[in-house]
Specification:
three-stranded mixed sheet, eight-stranded parallel beta barrel, 14 helices, TIM Barrel, 15 strands, globular, binds 5-hydroxymethyl-3,4-dihydroxypiperidine, alpha/beta, hydrolase
Protein backbone atom coordinates (compact mmCIF):
# COMPACT_ATOMS: atom_id res chain seq x y z
CA UNK A 1 0.00 0.00 0.00
CA UNK A 2 1.29 3.49 -0.81
CA UNK A 3 1.45 6.40 1.62
CA UNK A 4 -1.55 8.72 1.44
CA UNK A 5 -0.67 11.77 -0.65
CA UNK A 6 -0.33 15.18 1.00
CA UNK A 7 -3.41 17.33 1.29
CA UNK A 8 -5.08 19.61 0.55
CA UNK A 9 -5.21 20.06 -3.18
CA UNK A 10 -4.54 23.55 -4.50
CA UNK A 11 -7.69 25.62 -4.84
CA UNK A 12 -9.53 25.48 -8.18
CA UNK A 13 -11.81 28.28 -9.44
CA UNK A 14 -15.11 28.41 -7.59
CA UNK A 15 -17.10 27.69 -10.78
CA UNK A 16 -14.87 24.80 -11.87
CA UNK A 17 -17.04 21.88 -13.06
CA UNK A 18 -16.34 18.60 -11.27
CA UNK A 19 -17.83 15.44 -12.65
CA UNK A 20 -17.74 11.71 -13.20
CA UNK A 21 -18.10 9.88 -16.53
CA UNK A 22 -19.61 6.64 -17.81
CA UNK A 23 -20.93 5.35 -21.12
CA UNK A 24 -24.15 3.53 -21.99
CA UNK A 25 -22.74 0.29 -23.35
CA UNK A 26 -20.31 -0.07 -20.47
CA UNK A 27 -22.87 0.20 -17.68
CA UNK A 28 -26.49 -0.11 -18.75
CA UNK A 29 -27.03 -3.80 -19.47
CA UNK A 30 -30.70 -4.49 -20.32
CA UNK A 31 -29.59 -5.11 -23.87
CA UNK A 32 -32.74 -6.66 -25.25
CA UNK A 33 -35.16 -4.73 -23.05
CA UNK A 34 -37.77 -2.11 -23.87
CA UNK A 35 -37.14 -2.26 -27.59
CA UNK A 36 -33.41 -1.53 -27.61
CA UNK A 37 -31.85 -2.49 -30.94
CA UNK A 38 -28.57 -4.35 -31.33
CA UNK A 39 -25.33 -2.41 -31.57
CA UNK A 40 -21.96 -3.05 -33.16
CA UNK A 41 -20.55 -3.96 -29.75
CA UNK A 42 -23.27 -6.55 -29.03
CA UNK A 43 -22.35 -8.31 -32.26
CA UNK A 44 -18.60 -7.93 -31.75
CA UNK A 45 -18.68 -9.37 -28.21
CA UNK A 46 -20.65 -12.37 -29.49
CA UNK A 47 -17.76 -13.33 -31.80
CA UNK A 48 -15.50 -15.90 -30.10
CA UNK A 49 -12.17 -14.55 -28.90
CA UNK A 50 -12.97 -10.88 -29.18
CA UNK A 51 -13.32 -10.10 -25.45
CA UNK A 52 -10.50 -11.11 -23.10
CA UNK A 53 -12.71 -12.79 -20.48
CA UNK A 54 -15.33 -13.99 -22.95
CA UNK A 55 -17.90 -11.65 -21.44
CA UNK A 56 -20.33 -9.18 -22.96
CA UNK A 57 -22.27 -6.14 -21.78
CA UNK A 58 -25.71 -7.72 -21.65
CA UNK A 59 -25.90 -7.15 -17.88
CA UNK A 60 -22.84 -4.95 -17.19
CA UNK A 61 -23.53 -2.99 -13.98
CA UNK A 62 -27.30 -3.19 -14.39
CA UNK A 63 -27.45 0.61 -14.42
CA UNK A 64 -30.59 0.64 -16.59
CA UNK A 65 -32.57 -0.64 -13.62
CA UNK A 66 -30.42 0.96 -10.90
CA UNK A 67 -29.96 4.46 -12.25
CA UNK A 68 -31.67 6.09 -9.25
CA UNK A 69 -29.21 4.37 -6.89
CA UNK A 70 -26.32 5.52 -9.10
CA UNK A 71 -27.54 9.11 -9.17
CA UNK A 72 -27.75 8.99 -5.37
CA UNK A 73 -24.08 7.93 -5.31
CA UNK A 74 -23.14 10.82 -7.62
CA UNK A 75 -25.00 13.23 -5.36
CA UNK A 76 -23.27 11.81 -2.31
CA UNK A 77 -19.88 12.20 -4.01
CA UNK A 78 -20.58 15.91 -4.31
CA UNK A 79 -19.70 16.44 -7.98
CA UNK A 80 -21.64 19.00 -9.98
CA UNK A 81 -21.98 17.04 -13.23
CA UNK A 82 -22.47 13.56 -14.63
CA UNK A 83 -21.26 12.63 -18.09
CA UNK A 84 -23.18 9.64 -19.50
CA UNK A 85 -23.90 8.52 -23.02
CA UNK A 86 -27.13 7.86 -24.83
CA UNK A 87 -27.31 4.50 -26.61
CA UNK A 88 -28.29 5.34 -30.17
CA UNK A 89 -29.84 1.89 -30.62
CA UNK A 90 -32.07 2.40 -27.55
CA UNK A 91 -33.52 5.54 -29.12
CA UNK A 92 -33.53 4.41 -32.76
CA UNK A 93 -33.33 0.59 -32.76
CA UNK A 94 -32.52 0.49 -36.47
CA UNK A 95 -30.28 3.56 -36.29
CA UNK A 96 -32.82 5.60 -38.24
CA UNK A 97 -36.56 5.79 -38.73
CA UNK A 98 -38.92 4.85 -35.90
CA UNK A 99 -38.15 6.29 -32.49
CA UNK A 100 -38.38 3.90 -29.54
CA UNK A 101 -40.30 5.90 -26.95
CA UNK A 102 -39.37 3.54 -24.11
CA UNK A 103 -35.67 3.94 -24.83
CA UNK A 104 -35.85 7.70 -25.02
CA UNK A 105 -37.96 7.65 -21.87
CA UNK A 106 -35.10 6.05 -19.94
CA UNK A 107 -32.83 9.05 -20.61
CA UNK A 108 -35.69 11.39 -19.82
CA UNK A 109 -36.03 9.79 -16.36
CA UNK A 110 -32.27 9.77 -15.84
CA UNK A 111 -32.03 13.48 -16.64
CA UNK A 112 -34.95 14.24 -14.32
CA UNK A 113 -33.30 12.24 -11.54
CA UNK A 114 -30.01 14.13 -12.03
CA UNK A 115 -31.71 17.52 -12.04
CA UNK A 116 -33.61 16.65 -8.89
CA UNK A 117 -30.27 15.72 -7.28
CA UNK A 118 -28.73 19.04 -8.33
CA UNK A 119 -26.33 17.30 -10.74
CA UNK A 120 -25.90 18.73 -14.24
CA UNK A 121 -26.54 16.12 -16.97
CA UNK A 122 -23.84 16.04 -19.67
CA UNK A 123 -24.93 13.56 -22.35
CA UNK A 124 -22.59 12.16 -25.00
CA UNK A 125 -24.49 11.23 -28.14
CA UNK A 126 -22.08 8.61 -29.46
CA UNK A 127 -19.76 6.54 -27.30
CA UNK A 128 -18.86 3.72 -29.73
CA UNK A 129 -22.10 1.69 -29.84
CA UNK A 130 -23.17 2.12 -33.47
CA UNK A 131 -26.61 0.63 -34.21
CA UNK A 132 -25.97 -2.74 -35.81
CA UNK A 133 -28.19 -2.04 -38.81
CA UNK A 134 -25.99 0.93 -39.72
CA UNK A 135 -22.80 -1.01 -39.00
CA UNK A 136 -23.89 -3.77 -41.33
CA UNK A 137 -24.30 -1.14 -44.04
CA UNK A 138 -20.69 -0.01 -43.53
CA UNK A 139 -20.95 2.01 -40.33
CA UNK A 140 -18.73 5.07 -40.20
CA UNK A 141 -17.03 4.10 -43.43
CA UNK A 142 -20.24 5.36 -45.06
CA UNK A 143 -21.11 9.02 -45.40
CA UNK A 144 -24.75 8.18 -44.83
CA UNK A 145 -24.03 7.33 -41.18
CA UNK A 146 -23.08 10.97 -40.54
CA UNK A 147 -26.53 12.08 -41.70
CA UNK A 148 -28.29 9.42 -39.65
CA UNK A 149 -26.29 10.59 -36.62
CA UNK A 150 -27.52 14.17 -37.07
CA UNK A 151 -31.14 12.97 -37.27
CA UNK A 152 -30.62 11.02 -34.06
CA UNK A 153 -29.05 14.08 -32.39
CA UNK A 154 -32.16 16.04 -33.30
CA UNK A 155 -34.43 13.42 -31.69
CA UNK A 156 -32.45 13.45 -28.45
CA UNK A 157 -32.19 17.25 -28.33
CA UNK A 158 -35.94 17.60 -28.86
CA UNK A 159 -36.57 15.44 -25.79
CA UNK A 160 -33.79 16.40 -23.39
CA UNK A 161 -32.86 19.90 -24.55
CA UNK A 162 -35.02 21.69 -22.00
CA UNK A 163 -32.82 20.34 -19.17
CA UNK A 164 -29.41 19.90 -20.81
CA UNK A 165 -26.97 22.76 -21.28
CA UNK A 166 -23.80 20.78 -21.97
CA UNK A 167 -23.66 18.37 -24.91
CA UNK A 168 -20.93 16.08 -26.22
CA UNK A 169 -21.32 14.85 -29.78
CA UNK A 170 -18.69 12.10 -30.06
CA UNK A 171 -16.41 10.25 -27.70
CA UNK A 172 -12.90 9.43 -28.93
CA UNK A 173 -13.44 9.12 -32.67
CA UNK A 174 -9.71 8.33 -32.85
CA UNK A 175 -10.23 5.01 -31.05
CA UNK A 176 -13.23 4.11 -33.18
CA UNK A 177 -11.13 4.77 -36.28
CA UNK A 178 -7.85 3.19 -35.19
CA UNK A 179 -8.99 0.34 -32.97
CA UNK A 180 -12.38 -0.34 -34.57
CA UNK A 181 -11.72 0.04 -38.29
CA UNK A 182 -7.92 0.17 -38.52
CA UNK A 183 -6.59 -2.57 -36.25
CA UNK A 184 -9.68 -4.66 -35.44
CA UNK A 185 -9.24 -4.66 -31.67
CA UNK A 186 -12.63 -3.03 -31.11
CA UNK A 187 -16.02 -3.23 -32.84
CA UNK A 188 -16.59 -3.58 -35.71
CA UNK A 189 -13.33 -5.53 -35.81
CA UNK A 190 -12.12 -4.37 -39.24
CA UNK A 191 -8.39 -4.35 -40.06
CA UNK A 192 -8.31 -1.79 -42.82
CA UNK A 193 -5.17 0.07 -41.69
CA UNK A 194 -5.18 3.38 -43.57
CA UNK A 195 -8.38 2.30 -45.27
CA UNK A 196 -10.01 3.27 -41.95
CA UNK A 197 -9.48 7.00 -42.56
CA UNK A 198 -12.96 7.56 -44.08
CA UNK A 199 -14.36 6.55 -40.66
CA UNK A 200 -12.48 9.48 -39.13
CA UNK A 201 -13.83 11.91 -41.70
CA UNK A 202 -17.40 10.67 -41.46
CA UNK A 203 -17.39 10.91 -37.68
CA UNK A 204 -16.18 14.50 -37.97
CA UNK A 205 -18.84 15.18 -40.58
CA UNK A 206 -21.41 13.58 -38.27
CA UNK A 207 -20.19 15.86 -35.51
CA UNK A 208 -20.58 18.93 -37.73
CA UNK A 209 -24.07 17.94 -38.84
CA UNK A 210 -25.08 17.09 -35.27
CA UNK A 211 -23.86 20.49 -34.07
CA UNK A 212 -26.13 22.09 -36.69
CA UNK A 213 -29.05 19.93 -35.52
CA UNK A 214 -28.42 20.74 -31.86
CA UNK A 215 -28.09 24.47 -32.50
CA UNK A 216 -31.30 24.40 -34.56
CA UNK A 217 -32.97 23.11 -31.37
CA UNK A 218 -31.53 26.06 -29.45
CA UNK A 219 -28.77 24.07 -27.75
CA UNK A 220 -25.50 25.60 -26.74
CA UNK A 221 -22.69 24.36 -24.52
CA UNK A 222 -21.65 21.93 -27.26
CA UNK A 223 -18.33 20.08 -27.10
CA UNK A 224 -16.63 16.87 -28.14
CA UNK A 225 -14.49 14.40 -26.15
CA UNK A 226 -11.27 13.55 -27.97
CA UNK A 227 -8.49 11.36 -26.63
CA UNK A 228 -5.13 13.04 -26.64
CA UNK A 229 -1.74 12.61 -25.05
CA UNK A 230 1.81 13.84 -25.49
CA UNK A 231 3.84 11.79 -27.95
CA UNK A 232 7.55 11.47 -27.26
CA UNK A 233 10.19 10.20 -29.68
CA UNK A 234 12.15 7.15 -28.52
CA UNK A 235 15.40 8.92 -29.40
CA UNK A 236 16.69 12.04 -31.12
CA UNK A 237 17.23 10.22 -34.38
CA UNK A 238 15.43 11.60 -37.43
CA UNK A 239 13.70 8.25 -37.89
CA UNK A 240 12.29 8.16 -34.35
CA UNK A 241 11.29 11.82 -34.49
CA UNK A 242 9.55 11.26 -37.82
CA UNK A 243 7.69 8.25 -36.43
CA UNK A 244 6.64 10.21 -33.32
CA UNK A 245 5.41 13.11 -35.49
CA UNK A 246 3.31 10.71 -37.49
CA UNK A 247 1.81 9.15 -34.36
CA UNK A 248 1.13 12.64 -33.00
CA UNK A 249 -0.73 13.40 -36.21
CA UNK A 250 -2.93 10.31 -35.78
CA UNK A 251 -3.65 10.78 -32.09
CA UNK A 252 -3.68 14.52 -31.66
CA UNK A 253 -4.02 16.39 -34.95
CA UNK A 254 -6.27 14.21 -37.12
CA UNK A 255 -9.31 15.27 -35.12
CA UNK A 256 -8.25 18.53 -33.49
CA UNK A 257 -6.99 20.28 -36.64
CA UNK A 258 -10.25 19.95 -38.62
CA UNK A 259 -12.32 21.00 -35.61
CA UNK A 260 -10.17 23.91 -34.52
CA UNK A 261 -8.40 25.02 -37.71
CA UNK A 262 -10.80 23.81 -40.41
CA UNK A 263 -8.16 21.72 -42.19
CA UNK A 264 -6.54 18.32 -42.08
CA UNK A 265 -2.82 17.86 -41.43
CA UNK A 266 -0.83 17.74 -44.69
CA UNK A 267 -1.40 14.67 -46.82
CA UNK A 268 -4.64 13.50 -45.17
CA UNK A 269 -7.38 15.24 -47.17
CA UNK A 270 -6.13 13.56 -50.38
CA UNK A 271 -6.80 10.16 -48.82
CA UNK A 272 -10.45 10.92 -47.98
CA UNK A 273 -13.63 10.43 -49.98
CA UNK A 274 -16.29 13.01 -50.82
CA UNK A 275 -16.30 16.80 -51.02
CA UNK A 276 -13.70 17.14 -48.27
CA UNK A 277 -13.17 20.91 -48.55
CA UNK A 278 -16.91 21.59 -48.21
CA UNK A 279 -17.15 19.12 -45.34
CA UNK A 280 -14.27 20.81 -43.53
CA UNK A 281 -16.00 24.16 -43.89
CA UNK A 282 -19.06 22.63 -42.24
CA UNK A 283 -17.10 20.81 -39.53
CA UNK A 284 -15.42 24.02 -38.39
CA UNK A 285 -18.22 26.46 -39.24
CA UNK A 286 -19.88 26.42 -35.84
CA UNK A 287 -17.10 26.83 -33.27
CA UNK A 288 -17.27 24.54 -30.30
CA UNK A 289 -18.30 26.06 -26.99
CA UNK A 290 -15.69 23.94 -25.27
CA UNK A 291 -13.19 21.24 -26.17
CA UNK A 292 -13.11 17.97 -24.23
CA UNK A 293 -9.86 16.12 -23.71
CA UNK A 294 -9.66 12.53 -22.45
CA UNK A 295 -6.18 11.99 -21.05
CA UNK A 296 -4.69 8.73 -19.79
CA UNK A 297 -1.01 8.44 -20.70
CA UNK A 298 1.78 9.75 -22.90
CA UNK A 299 3.15 7.55 -25.69
CA UNK A 300 6.77 6.80 -26.55
CA UNK A 301 7.14 6.18 -30.26
CA UNK A 302 10.03 5.05 -32.44
CA UNK A 303 10.60 4.02 -36.01
CA UNK A 304 9.56 0.53 -37.06
CA UNK A 305 12.34 -1.94 -37.68
CA UNK A 306 13.38 -5.56 -37.18
CA UNK A 307 14.04 -5.07 -33.45
CA UNK A 308 11.10 -2.76 -32.72
CA UNK A 309 8.11 -4.11 -30.75
CA UNK A 310 5.27 -5.27 -32.98
CA UNK A 311 2.53 -4.87 -30.47
CA UNK A 312 1.34 -2.33 -27.94
CA UNK A 313 -0.73 -3.32 -24.89
CA UNK A 314 -1.69 -6.51 -26.67
CA UNK A 315 -2.67 -4.78 -29.91
CA UNK A 316 -0.70 -6.09 -32.88
CA UNK A 317 0.77 -3.20 -34.87
CA UNK A 318 1.14 -4.40 -38.48
CA UNK A 319 4.57 -3.93 -40.09
CA UNK A 320 3.06 -1.53 -42.65
CA UNK A 321 2.60 1.06 -39.90
CA UNK A 322 5.33 3.74 -39.97
CA UNK A 323 5.82 3.66 -36.19
CA UNK A 324 6.31 1.35 -33.23
CA UNK A 325 5.08 2.07 -29.72
CA UNK A 326 7.62 1.54 -26.92
CA UNK A 327 7.25 1.00 -23.19
CA UNK A 328 7.69 4.12 -21.04
CA UNK A 329 10.01 3.20 -18.17
CA UNK A 330 10.47 4.74 -14.75
CA UNK A 331 6.86 5.38 -13.74
CA UNK A 332 4.30 3.45 -11.70
CA UNK A 333 1.83 1.46 -13.78
CA UNK A 334 -1.89 0.87 -13.52
CA UNK A 335 -3.34 -2.66 -13.52
CA UNK A 336 -3.75 -2.17 -17.28
CA UNK A 337 0.02 -1.55 -17.51
CA UNK A 338 -0.44 2.11 -18.45
CA UNK A 339 2.30 4.41 -17.12
CA UNK A 340 1.17 6.98 -14.56
CA UNK A 341 2.64 10.31 -15.70
CA UNK A 342 0.71 13.27 -14.26
CA UNK A 343 3.16 15.85 -15.64
CA UNK A 344 2.18 14.77 -19.13
CA UNK A 345 -1.30 16.21 -18.47
CA UNK A 346 0.21 19.66 -17.85
CA UNK A 347 2.37 19.21 -20.95
CA UNK A 348 -0.61 18.16 -23.06
CA UNK A 349 -2.78 21.09 -22.03
CA UNK A 350 -0.06 23.70 -22.46
CA UNK A 351 0.94 22.22 -25.83
CA UNK A 352 -2.66 22.46 -27.03
CA UNK A 353 -2.76 26.11 -26.08
CA UNK A 354 0.53 26.70 -27.90
CA UNK A 355 -0.58 24.77 -30.97
CA UNK A 356 -4.08 26.22 -31.35
CA UNK A 357 -3.84 29.59 -29.61
CA UNK A 358 -7.09 31.56 -29.75
CA UNK A 359 -8.74 28.82 -31.78
CA UNK A 360 -8.81 26.60 -28.70
CA UNK A 361 -12.06 27.14 -26.79
CA UNK A 362 -12.21 26.55 -23.03
CA UNK A 363 -11.06 23.02 -22.25
CA UNK A 364 -12.75 20.39 -20.10
CA UNK A 365 -10.92 17.20 -19.13
CA UNK A 366 -13.78 14.86 -20.01
CA UNK A 367 -12.00 11.66 -18.88
CA UNK A 368 -9.04 10.84 -16.66
CA UNK A 369 -8.65 7.79 -14.50
CA UNK A 370 -6.98 4.43 -13.99
CA UNK A 371 -7.65 0.74 -13.48
CA UNK A 372 -6.72 -0.85 -10.16
CA UNK A 373 -8.22 -3.69 -8.17
CA UNK A 374 -9.51 -3.59 -4.62
CA UNK A 375 -11.66 -1.43 -2.41
CA UNK A 376 -8.75 0.23 -0.59
CA UNK A 377 -7.48 1.77 -3.83
CA UNK A 378 -4.70 3.98 -2.54
CA UNK A 379 -3.05 3.89 -5.99
CA UNK A 380 -6.14 5.52 -7.53
CA UNK A 381 -6.05 8.20 -4.84
CA UNK A 382 -2.40 8.89 -5.68
CA UNK A 383 -3.28 8.94 -9.39
CA UNK A 384 -6.11 11.44 -8.94
CA UNK A 385 -4.14 13.58 -6.54
CA UNK A 386 -1.20 13.74 -8.95
CA UNK A 387 -3.34 14.52 -11.98
CA UNK A 388 -5.37 17.20 -10.22
CA UNK A 389 -2.15 18.93 -9.17
CA UNK A 390 -0.91 18.65 -12.77
CA UNK A 391 -4.19 20.12 -13.97
CA UNK A 392 -3.82 22.98 -11.55
CA UNK A 393 -0.33 23.69 -12.92
CA UNK A 394 -1.85 24.00 -16.40
CA UNK A 395 -4.42 26.46 -15.03
CA UNK A 396 -1.65 28.43 -13.35
CA UNK A 397 0.20 28.49 -16.70
CA UNK A 398 -2.83 30.17 -18.25
CA UNK A 399 -4.68 27.30 -19.94
CA UNK A 400 -8.43 27.94 -19.72
CA UNK A 401 -9.59 24.65 -18.18
CA UNK A 402 -13.17 24.70 -16.93
CA UNK A 403 -13.81 21.20 -15.66
CA UNK A 404 -12.56 17.71 -14.83
CA UNK A 405 -14.43 14.39 -15.06
CA UNK A 406 -13.13 11.19 -13.49
CA UNK A 407 -13.34 8.03 -15.57
CA UNK A 408 -15.26 6.34 -14.12
CA UNK A 409 -18.07 6.57 -11.60
CA UNK A 410 -18.05 2.79 -11.28
CA UNK A 411 -16.34 -0.36 -12.54
CA UNK A 412 -17.72 -1.35 -15.91
CA UNK A 413 -17.35 -3.30 -19.15
CA UNK A 414 -13.93 -2.23 -20.41
CA UNK A 415 -14.49 -3.09 -24.09
CA UNK A 416 -12.11 -5.78 -25.38
CA UNK A 417 -10.84 -6.26 -21.81
CA UNK A 418 -14.31 -7.27 -20.59
CA UNK A 419 -14.55 -6.95 -16.81
CA UNK A 420 -10.84 -7.47 -16.15
CA UNK A 421 -10.02 -3.78 -15.71
CA UNK A 422 -11.69 -1.80 -12.93
CA UNK A 423 -11.73 1.97 -13.45
CA UNK A 424 -14.44 2.86 -10.92
CA UNK A 425 -14.62 5.04 -7.84
CA UNK A 426 -17.39 2.61 -6.93
CA UNK A 427 -16.78 -1.15 -6.89
CA UNK A 428 -19.26 -3.39 -8.69
CA UNK A 429 -19.79 -6.95 -7.50
CA UNK A 430 -20.63 -8.57 -10.82
CA UNK A 431 -22.45 -11.45 -9.10
CA UNK A 432 -24.85 -9.33 -7.09
CA UNK A 433 -24.43 -5.92 -8.82
CA UNK A 434 -23.90 -4.43 -5.35
CA UNK A 435 -22.25 -1.01 -5.39
CA UNK A 436 -19.54 -0.24 -2.83
CA UNK A 437 -17.74 3.11 -2.77
CA UNK A 438 -13.97 2.61 -2.73
CA UNK A 439 -11.43 4.55 -0.67
CA UNK A 440 -10.93 6.86 -3.69
CA UNK A 441 -14.63 7.78 -3.64
CA UNK A 442 -14.34 8.90 -0.01
CA UNK A 443 -11.07 10.71 -0.75
CA UNK A 444 -12.57 12.62 -3.69
CA UNK A 445 -15.68 13.53 -1.72
CA UNK A 446 -13.51 15.04 0.99
CA UNK A 447 -11.25 16.79 -1.55
CA UNK A 448 -14.31 18.37 -3.20
CA UNK A 449 -15.69 19.41 0.15
CA UNK A 450 -12.42 21.23 0.81
CA UNK A 451 -12.77 23.02 -2.54
CA UNK A 452 -16.05 24.62 -1.57
CA UNK A 453 -15.83 28.23 -0.43
CA UNK A 454 -16.18 28.54 3.37
CA UNK A 455 -19.80 28.75 4.38
CA UNK A 456 -21.07 27.38 1.06
CA UNK A 457 -23.34 24.37 1.21
CA UNK A 458 -23.59 23.91 -2.56
CA UNK A 459 -21.42 21.93 -4.89
CA UNK A 460 -18.30 23.49 -6.35
O1 LIG B 1 -13.37 2.87 -20.86
C1 LIG B 1 -12.80 3.74 -21.76
C2 LIG B 1 -13.80 4.76 -22.25
O2 LIG B 1 -14.93 4.15 -22.80
C3 LIG B 1 -13.19 5.63 -23.31
N1 LIG B 1 -11.97 6.21 -22.84
C4 LIG B 1 -10.99 5.33 -22.24
C5 LIG B 1 -11.64 4.50 -21.15
C6 LIG B 1 -10.61 3.58 -20.49
O3 LIG B 1 -10.03 2.73 -21.44
Amino acid sequence: MTTPPPRPLPRFPADFLWGVSTSAHQIEGAVGEDGRGMSSWDAFAAEPGRIRDGSDASVATGHYHRYAQDVALIKDLGVGAYRFSVAWSRVLPEGAGAVNGAGLGFYDRLVDELCAAGVRPVPTLFHWDTPLALEKAGGWLERDTAHRFAEYADVVAARLGDRVDRWITLNEPAEVTLLGYGLGQHAPGRRLLFGALPAAHHQLLGHGLAVQALRARGADGIGIANSHGPVRPASDSDEDRGAADFYDLLLNRLFADPLLLGRYPDGIAEMLPGPVADDLALIASRPLDWYGINYYQPTLVGAPGPDAPTDFAGIAIPPEMPFSVREIEGHPRTAFGWPVVPDALTELLTSFRERYGDRLPPVVVTENGCSYDGLDDQERIAFLDGHLRALHRALAAGVDVRGYFVWSLMDNFEWAEGYTQRFGLVHIDYETLARTPKASFHWLREALREQRPPGSSGRP
